[in-house]
Amino acid sequence: MKHLSHEERRKRIVHGAMEAFARWGFRGTRSRDLAKAAGVSEALIFKHFPNKRAIQKAIIEERIRQTGQFISAELREAPLDRALEAIAVRILQGSERDPSFLRLLYFAGLESEPLAPMFFKRRVSQSIDELAELYRVWARRGWVRKSIDARMFAWSFMSCVFQLVAVRSIFSVKRMSDHRGSLAANVSALFLQGIRS
After folding, report:
1. Are 108 and 56 in the same domain?
2. pLDDT digits (tens, 9 = 90+) for 14-46
3. Residue 1: inside a domain, yes or no?
4. Burial track 38-50 (b if 16+ CB lie within 10 A, e otherwise)
């Protein structure tokens, strides 16, 4: 471990902790489990993080850093159907790249750990705001119904896509193993039927 920098060791611990928490939950994960998952000593973990809560916070920071802005400037100008499909693809890609994160969020919610509300406050609510604002832009252009509440649309669309993610990655439903592009196109088409003006 001597060849790793302070920051590299910290990242290793965060990624190992994400895997351990996703496997055993927060209450079921012991410090030795965290050390084993990260490939470091228990002492080294507590040198970088005073407790599990600090590790949870670091996991959120890392996840937010990886994901960046939710809706790009290009998508703001894209046709309605292409924009919705691209947003769904982005969410599905994220879950495929890091399937353990969703399991970790489920554990956090069930065990009343602060990680889930922290993530929703820092990342999901921001994404909902961006998508709701995009819906308002579409409404001003006359592409979608003005009578539909923009935030309700944003929550509904995101919830639907996240449910697809859960069915595929957590519950391993084989019938939901279609290519992400096909899933994104279908869920987008379903919503378009309800929101087009």
Report:
1. no
2. 999 988 988 888 888 999 999 999 999 999 998
3. no
4. bebeeebbeebbe
**Confidence bin at 134 (pLDDT 50/70/90):** very high
84 and 40 in a common domain: no
The secondary structure of the chain as a DSSP string is -TTS-HHHHHHHHHHHHHHHHHHHHHHH--HHHHHHHHTS-HHHHHHH-SSHHHHHHHHHHHHHHHH--SS-HHHHHS-HHHHHHHHHHHHHHHHHH-HHHHHHHHHHHHTT-THHHHHIIIIIHHHHHHHHHHHHHHHHHTSB-TTS-HHHHHHHHHHHHHHHHHHHHTS--GGG-S-HHHHHHHHHHHHHHHHB-
Q: What pLDDT shows up at residue 65?
A: 79
In the chain, how many domains are there? 2
* Model pLDDT for residues 74-93, shown as the tens digit of each residue: 888 999 989 999 999 888 88
| Residue range of the domain that includes 94 | 69-195
The chain-wide mean pLDDT, for the chain, equals 85
Question: Residue 143 sits in a domain of what CATH number?
Answer: 1.10.357
Residues 165-177 have pLDDT tens digits of 887 777 766 555 5
